């Protein structure tokens, strides 16, 4: 892996471009002999960073586990030398934040409060409860953000550009500006933004602090115009800010923050190349065999979904819609298989463990009700297997993407890019991707199980030439702003 403390090439020791996010581009594993091995992360942000051609840039992130913390402690200045390990040669600085502070900030506020608010997930008769425990978590969230602000201030060259990512770091822009008013700061929200009437469930001071924190940026950007305007509405309702919806600006406390929209797209070149490697071909052959043929010898059709077992992804209602399809349209029995890959998410939170259990239970009920000696109506895997997911993308006749609410949803964009023979996309109108893909998708109300079942039927009966034509248009729209350009657009917007 190289010497973790190797000096970077920038003679000033400070970075002209910085990225800040909870999860960084790499993670570490501590081996039995005490050595550290490194693994590159995935996702659009990691791909986007490779667009930066300045080796002096720095990515600031949190150490997420014991191995990450061990790696951070081996570097006197906190920077890790990755030897250009597929992240464009940039330095990474991992913050060794106190584990209890991190846990309270990450689980208590970021994932159990802000995520729930923006995705409208609360069971409001019983939650949320903003009690003494919440106040301790909120204090930790402030400390966590402050650790990032201090690190960014120390790393940034005069007048540097800093791109702060997501709801984990909503306070950091204002904290950073107080330390370094010379910096150009951007904040990007990867989630939806709640409407004011829901957002105001937060305690008043917390609601104000989150908005004011983001407004410390010169520019606050979102995945869709809908989420940007919802943020502006909250600023107006909660802070009394002045909003110009035509110019997309918010003015508060003497400062004006510009709003921006960047609809992250799929990485077509990577997906198409990766989807045709031998391991994916092998998984595809296994899936085809498992799906099989109906009694008349015809290949069975497939309804595919690939998701985390995340509450907002709406897997349970998707399963119920499939069950309704089989109950009300018996002609599909023995002729279709639902391939559902739902890999575990946030199992340190009880709500997520319970949700995963519900997914398994309903899948078993469908199997018990419809399975025959020669037909398995549903194939469920609750684990993460990327090659197998790509194989499912290639195989899909219908892709089901029905989130309750989603900032974008890249699965909706990835399936059309990878599909072998064309795929009908059943897409929730509450997914950010719907803003770009609605014309060629079959859109649904994610709460309406009956209508979703009918959408599945429509997708399954769609003529092949129509599916192929729609898929071409969906793929073109899905790749219009690939990750590298998405990242560069944010960077250039701060010039």
Keywords:
18 strands; 495 residues; single chain; alpha/beta; 18 helices
Put the structure in a nutshell.
This protein is an alpha/beta fold. The chain is 43% helix and 19% strand.
Describe it for me?
The protein has helices spanning 44-49, 66-73, 99-118, 132-155, 172-179, 196-199, 204-214, 225-239, 268-274, 278-291, 315-328, 350-370, 386-395, 411-418, 434-437, 449-461, 464-478, 483-492; strands at 15-20, 26-30, 36-40, 58-62, 79-80, 91-95, 156-165, 184-189, 219-222, 242-244, 249-252, 255-261, 301-308, 336-343, 378-381, 398-401, 424-428, 442-444. The chain is α/β, with parallel strands linked by helices. It is built from 18 helices and 18 strands. α14 links the parallel β16 and β17. Mean pLDDT is 91; it is low at 1-11 and 83-88. A ten-stranded mixed sheet has the order 5-6-4-1-7-8-9-12-11-10.
Question: What topology does this entry show?
Answer:
Layout: E1 15-20, E2 26-30, E3 36-40, H1 44-49, E4 58-62, H2 66-73, E5 79-80, E6 91-95, H3 99-118, H4 132-155, E7 156-165, H5 172-179, E8 184-189, H6 196-199, H7 204-214, E9 219-222, H8 225-239, E10 242-244, E11 249-252, E12 255-261, H9 268-274, H10 278-291, E13 301-308, H11 315-328, E14 336-343, H12 350-370, E15 378-381, H13 386-395, E16 398-401, H14 411-418, E17 424-428, H15 434-437, E18 442-444, H16 449-461, H17 464-478, H18 483-492
Parallel strand pairs: 1-4, 1-7, 4-6, 7-8, 8-9, 9-12, 13-14, 13-16, 14-15, 16-17, 17-18
Antiparallel strand pairs: 2-3, 5-6, 10-11, 11-12
Helix pairs in contact: 3-4, 4-5, 7-8, 10-13, 11-12, 11-16, 14-17
């Amino acid at each position: 892996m190289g010497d973790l403390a190797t000096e970077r090439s920038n003679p000033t020791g400070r970075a002209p471009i910085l990225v800040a996010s909870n999860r960084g581009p790499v993670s570490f594993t501590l081996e039995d002999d005490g050595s550290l091995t490194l693994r590159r992360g995935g996702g659009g942000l990691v791909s986007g960073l490779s667009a930066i051609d300045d080796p002096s840039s720095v990515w600031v992130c949190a150490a997420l586990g014991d191995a990450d913390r061990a790696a951070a402690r081996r570097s006197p200045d906190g920077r890790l030398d990755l030897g250009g390990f597929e992240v464009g040669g940039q330095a990474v600085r991992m913050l060794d934040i106190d584990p209890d502070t991190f846990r309270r900030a990450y689980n208590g506020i970021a994932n159990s409060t802000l995520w729930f608010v923006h995705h409208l997930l609360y069971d409001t008769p019983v939650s949320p409860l903003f009690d003494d425990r919440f106040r301790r978590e909120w204090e930790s969230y402030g400390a966590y953000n402050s650790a990032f602000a201090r690190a960014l201030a120390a790393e940034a060259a005069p007048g540097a550009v800093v791109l702060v990512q997501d709801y984990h770091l909503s306070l950091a822009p204002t904290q950073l500006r107080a330390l370094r008013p010379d910096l150009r700061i951007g904040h990007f929200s990867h989630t939806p933004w709640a409407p004011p009437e829901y957002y105001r469930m937060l305690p008043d001071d917390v609601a104000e602090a989150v908005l004011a924190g983001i407004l410390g940026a010169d520019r606050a950007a979102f995945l869709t115009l809908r989420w940007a305007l919802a943020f502006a509405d909250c600023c107006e309702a909660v802070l009394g800010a002045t909003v110009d919806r035509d110019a997309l600006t918010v003015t508060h406390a003497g400062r004006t923050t510009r709003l921006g929209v960047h609809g992250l797209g799929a990485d077509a070149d990577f997906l198409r190349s990766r989807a045709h490697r031998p391991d994916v071909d092998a998984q595809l052959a296994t899936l085809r065999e498992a799906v099989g043929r109906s009694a008349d010898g015809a290949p069975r059709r497939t309804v595919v979904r690939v998701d985390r077992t995340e509450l907002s992804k709406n897997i349970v209602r998707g399963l119920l819609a499939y069950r309704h399809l089989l109950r009300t349209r018996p002609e599909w029995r023995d002729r279709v298989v639902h391939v559902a890959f739902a890999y575990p998410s946030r199992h340190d939170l009880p709500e997520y463990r319970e949700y995963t259990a519900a997914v398994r239970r309903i899948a078993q009920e469908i199997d018990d009700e419809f399975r025959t000696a020669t037909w398995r109506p549903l194939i469920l895997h609750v684990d993460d297997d990327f090659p197998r997911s790509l194989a499912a993308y290639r195989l899909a006749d219908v892709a089901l993407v029905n989130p309750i609410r989603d900032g974008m949803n890249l699965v909706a964009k990835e399936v059309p890019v990878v599909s072998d023979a064309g795929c009908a996309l059943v897409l929730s109108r509450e997914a950010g991707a719907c803003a770009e893909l609605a014309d060629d998708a079959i859109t649904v109300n994610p709460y309406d199980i009956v209508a979703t079942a009918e959408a599945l039927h429509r997708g399954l009966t769609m003529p092949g030439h129509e599916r192929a034509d729609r898929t071409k248009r969906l793929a073109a729209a899905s790749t219009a702003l690939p990750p590298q350009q998405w990242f560069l657009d944010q960077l250039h917007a701060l010039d």
